[in-house]
Amino acid sequence: xxxxxxxxxxNVGVLDIxxxxxxxxxxxxxxxxxxxxxxxxxxxxxxxxxxxxFESKFGVESLYQEALDIVVPEAYVxxxxxxxxxxxxxxxxxxxxFGKGQVLKFKAKVVVKPEVELGEYKxxxxxxxxxxxxxxxxxxxxxxxxxxxxxxxxxxxxxAENGDVVSIDFEGFVDGVAFxxxxxxxxxxxxxxxxxxxxxxxQVVGLKKGEEKDITVSFPEDYHSEDLKGKEAVFKIQLHDxxxxxxxxxxxxxxxxxSEFETLEEFKQDLEGKLKQRKETEALRKKEADVVEKAxxxxxxxxxxxxxxxxxxxxxxxxxxxxxxxxxxxxxxxQFTGQNDDVLKxxxxxxxxxxxxxxxxxxxxxxxxxxxxxxxxxxxxxxxxSQMYQRSTEELRxxxxxxxxxxxxxxxxxxxxxxxxxxxxSK
Length: 427
What we know:
Elements: E1 2-9, E2 12-19, H1 21-35, H2 51-58, H3 64-83, E3 92-97, E4 104-111, H4 135-148, E5 151-154, E6 165-174, E7 177-190, H5 200-204, E8 212-218, E9 232-246, H6 252-258, H7 264-298, H8 305-325, H9 330-337, H10 341-368, H11 375-389, H12 393-402, H13 406-424
Antiparallel strand pairs: 1-2, 2-4, 3-4, 5-9, 6-7, 6-9, 8-9
């Protein structure tokens, strides 16, 4: 096989590929073995028609498309490896010559990974993040825990207040017409959380058990539903029950109930340590994000649109997986939000472009600094995965190699090392 690469414009070029006649013959043989099982010829069992009879009846040309489907992808992959290019999209293939006994000639127009012109990436000034923990922050964590362990006590006589959990029926109307998704029965709502349309919860405050009321609110201008955004709506509600939180005292008994510590003071010290660890981790992540963003801003690169589109599709899949883990799917999400694929992808496109840019710049820095994943680092990562998935490192390596994902793991290790390099060389 012969292959040559010529760039015709930025990030786009053409592979000129020739495949020897004997490889074409092999592809035609494979095509015949596949096609012959699908044809009926009187006097022969299916799949047992001799090649010569098949070709005289159907013509050798009937094998061409199947043979091309076999030989072109193989030759393309070999040509990509031989020329050292990195495609980022499927090629546009133009077959110029193909036939029995002939050399196969075809061109493949390819979009390739862009070249990155690095700017300053060492010695970047990054704002320091304060990881100190205040007594106020510790108390805030305690209050959250106190709220979480509160007992809900029914209120038989009295009006609803902020912080109460109420059970309500409601139905919403716009211009006197009920709208989809605006009705529920025995809906549990914690007042003061802001989980409903602005102005709704405030008008429930003051109602007593069994009372009814018409609540008028306006949907925000940026509301997800086109039919409702900016519209005034009337909700007819009935309040069934009120439950008020009975907060436990913040004392030693509370500490014993929610932790392994005997005293509140010990529990607070443990909370302080965990908060400090969390803030230090957050500070490091912020520093990593900032230094990568600055290095990317200093670089010059023209990103092919297809890379952004592919990354957007990947982000959509990741979002769908997160929904699935929460017992939801995209179809339900779209029903609840009034969105669709196009709207959601448009929202993701900016972040997708940023991710592509950052990855390209990090790859270029790793190459410039000769940063690679060592076998020791790979084994350490496999060991961590082994503990997580309860499988041996050898088994995990074999699975990753079989799935073609071992290189992805190495790539992730190099990216992590590169980010660490940037942080270590920042000011």
